[in-house]
Structure prediction request, 392 residues.
Amino acid sequence: MSPLFAEVEPEPHVKGIERMAREATTLLEKSRAEYLHIAARTILNRCASARMPFTWTINPYRGCEYGCRYCYARYTHEFMGLPRWEDFEEKIYVKRDAARLLARELTPGRLRGQSIALGTATDPYQPAERRFRVTRSLLSVMTQASGVRLSITTKSDLVTRDIDLLRRIALRNSLQVNLTVTTLDRRLARLLEFRASTPDRRLHALRTLREAGIVAGIALSPILPDITDDRDSLGAVIAAAHAHGATHLFWNVLFLKPSAQQAFFSFLERHSPDLTKRYAARFARSAFLDRAYQERISALITELKRQHGFPDRTDFELPAPIHETDQREAEQLPLFQIATSATLAPSNPPRVGPSATLDIGQSRCMGYSGHTQSQPISSRGPTNEGPPNSPR
Prediction:
């Protein structure tokens, strides 16, 4: 007679990451997420696309509890046999052996002069990191590296916890931290990124990193058509980045693969149904916004960056806009348009003053321009790019 709780064997045809996901063991269950241990075979993943500004990626987790409505990385859970878009934020796979794997793979001289991006398909400082500390364990190993270019991208102020390790890494490597900020409107940020640190906390983290002498800037990504792409909204983020001592600012526009489209369109239907048809038209034929839109945003960002003293480009900016990439390359796309820079850090970080806040309606908006950002998520009407329901 077989035991009551006999081990279930995976289906014979299930292989690779899907098989590993099925064999994962539960570490912790919470009301909104389940954490599972996945037995990773490697932690350094080579980026196959020549368009990308880095050679290797590291993701300490699979999935992300932040659940940002626009997150492009949701499709990565499909490789594990998890097709629901909600799975990406409800099933978080923890690579508990990541540090051991990295120590094995980070052999002397192997990666010298190459770029590593930490956090391309997950946020390395998402809530799981407070408990499992996988990212910190990886940084501990990285302190032994030399001549590597490392970039870290996050929406969490938890990154400041690791300043001790970041400073040690920067002694022998090129290090850059990118804090993602899409809007300064707290109400809008809470709708779009409802589990991430608030924008003002991310900006405070930026200031703290700069005061510690770490190269750090803002990833203004993704820019959302008819929601965060007007001059006032973009200008406010860029002004705040400058006020908090950012060494750089990078950007990217929204793109929506099918699973991300399901999540984002559901969000629009609930909070701004008048925009749903417009977005459906924009993304009817492609996951990427068209060239005309990209060029308009590029010109506007360039103008605003110059206004606030940022360079137009850096040595590591993507050589091609995101909308020109093909399907295979899209799977390698980062959350922003560049990875790392070693040339922008002054020996003494700039002094930055306290940020002001303005009470506007029910939200609190960081006050860095003469305009406010607090507005409902709604259509701003037709632009000169074409009628509302035409692909743009």
About this structure: Residues 1-6, 316-376, 381-392 have pLDDT under 50 and may be disordered.
